[in-house]
Amino acid sequence: MTMDLFNPFFVKNSTFIQPAYFIISGFIGLPNMKYYYVFLFFVFIVSVLGNVAVMAVICLDHNLRTPKYVAVFNLAFVDLLGSCALVPKVLDIFLFNHYYVPYNDCLTFLFFCYTCLSMQALNLVALCYDRLMAIMFPLHYHVKVTHKIMFSMITFFWLFVITCVLLAIGLLTRLSFCKSVVINSYFCDHGQIYKLACNDNFPNFVISHLLPCLFLWLPLVIICSSYICIGYTLAQVVAAQERAKALRTCTAHLSLVVIYFCPILITFTMGSGIHPNARIINLSLTSVIPPLLNPVIYVLHTQEIRSSIKTILK
Fold first, then answer.
1. DSSP conformation class of 65
2. Under a CB-based contact definition with an 8 Å cutoff, are residues 118 and 251 in contact?
3. Which positions fall inside the G-protein coupled receptors family 1 profile domain (predicted)?
4. Distance between CA 89 and CA 23 in Å, rounded?
5. pLDDT of 33-44, one tens digit each?
6. Pairing state of beta strands 10-13 and 182-183?
7. What is the largest CA-CA distance in the chain?
8. Which domains does the chain show, CATH number per domain?
């Protein structure tokens, strides 16, 4: 496709070309995919209701105003924000055929998607810290896990994620797009956008590999290391019943870790070896399934929340 065909759609400044919009391609060659987007809509509704319910319970019950539930509340908030940022826009693009996304809207879309996806991983680190302190230092738990420490940790995570994502977006704005503007994904995917550029995109290449290390691999290493320490500590406990009781307090968190990390790490590990359609399905389910299951897991596995819901309903 020649440059002339794109001239009406680009803002040109000498050799720098900024597109007026990007085109989101979505699935390639798969029929009846509208049913999949309808499925995403129902998942979205249930996840919104579930996360709003968890946030409401934590706010209404003064017994849940503990440092641990600061992290749980933040997890529910991030899940809610991520679902609201992603799913309605995806439905608008593919169910109502609005494939053309304005340039600035696409970067905003990218910001919210990547921020929420990264914060989900860091929230799991905050909850892991709570479990680590509770099991390794039970007598000093209330000193090592305070509201101040938890608020400081979560605030730092937010600032760090927002700064990194804004840096990635800032580097995208220096790119010139003189060929295709078709993004082979279901949203404004950073990795797919910078590869369309005509000028030097090496800084974007670097940050596209740095961000997964910071927000996927590093949190996973921290969580795995923490559970190795927890396992070693529990191995020193003589009573098997006490070990089982302590381990049960970790089941909810471990479930969230598996649900979040497994699909997304498979996608990033396989890289270009995975089919584009499989990548879209994997990433889209990774974005919507954890927000759906997180409230369910915490309600089923956490005695405090179950008791609080019973009290509120009464």
1. -
2. no
3. 50-298
4. 13
5. 889 999 999 999
6. unpaired
7. 76
8. 21-313 (1.20.1070.10)
